[in-house]
Amino acid sequence: MIRLRYYLREIGRNLYRYPGTAVGSILSLTLIFLLFDLFWVAAGTSNRMYQQLLTQVQMEIFVSDNLPDSVMTPLAGAIADIPGIKDVRYVSREDARLELTRLVGTDLLTEYDTLNPLPRSFILDLDQSVKNLASMEMLDQSLRQISGVTDVSYSRDWLSKAEETRSMVTRVGMILGLIILLTAVINSGNNIRLMTRARGGGYGQMLLLGAGRWFLALPLMLEGFLLCLLSAVLSWGIVLFAGRKIAFSQFAIVMPPVGDIALFCGAAALLGFVSGYVGVRKLLR
C-alpha cells in the first residue's frame, strides 16, 4: 500500500512539474492513434461495401443453339449438382429479349419476330464461400466441361481488382501499424527520458540511500502506461463523436466493436509501459 501511494505520488508529481511535456505527449500520441483509428474505420467500411457487392456477383452460362429446349431442365439439374452453386435460373430467348428491352428502353429485335438471335443461358446464384477469384475460376473450368456450354461469364476483372485492393489495404495497415508502434515508443520514451534527466540528481541520491532501480523506474513506466491509455481513449472518443455527427447517403460508416476498441486501448497502454521502460533503461543499468 505504501509503494502504491509512492507510485501515484510520483506520477502526479511528474505530471504537475512538467505539464507541457505531458500535454504535448498526449496530443502527439492522440494524433498518431487517430490516424490508425481512421484507417481502421475506413478499412471496415470498405470491407462492408465489398461484402455487399459480393452478394450481387453471379455467373451466367450460355448454351449452344443446337441444343433443343427439351434438354434445358436436365442440364439445369446437372449444373445445380456442382458444389458452390446455390440456385440455377433458366433464361430463354424471349426472357433475354425482355431483359434487353428493359435495359435499353426499346425493343431492338422488332424485325426478328420469327427468329430471336439472342442466346439461351442459365444465371447461377453462388454460395458466399465461392465468391472469390480462385474459386470462381475453378468453377468456370468445371462448367465449361459440361456438354452444350459455350461460354461462361462473370465479373472476373472486378473481382481481380477488388481482391488486389483488399490485399493492398492489408499491407498498408500492417506498415501503418508498425510505423505507429515505433513512433509511439520513441515519442513516449523520449518524453520520459527528459523527465528522468531533469530529476537525475534526485534519483542518484535515492540510489545511494538504497532504493532499488526498479522501484524508481516503475512510476515512470506507469506514467507511460497512463499517457498512452489516455491518448488512445481520447482518439477513439474523437472518432466516435465524429461518427455520430457525420453521415453519408451512399454508405454507412462501420465502427469496430466495443471489445476491439477496448483491446486497442489496452494494447496502447501496454505499448506505453514498454516505451516507459525504453525511457528509463539507463536508470536500470
TrEMBL record:
Keywords: Cell cycle, Cell division, Cell membrane, Membrane, Transmembrane, Transmembrane helix. InterPro entries: ABC3_permease_C, FtsX, FtsX_ECD. It is a multi-pass membrane protein. GO terms for biological process: cell division. It holds the Pfam family FtsX_ECD. It is found in: Cell membrane. Residues 175-284 form the ABC3 transporter permease C-terminal domain. Residues 57-152 form the FtsX extracellular domain. The chain crosses the membrane at residues 21-43, 168-189, 214-241, 261-280. GO terms for cellular component: plasma membrane. It comes from the Bacteria. Belongs to the ABC-4 integral membrane protein family. FtsX subfamily. PANTHER family: CELL DIVISION PROTEIN FTSX (PTHR47755:SF1). This is Cell division protein FtsX. The lineage of its organism: Bacteria, candidate division GN15.
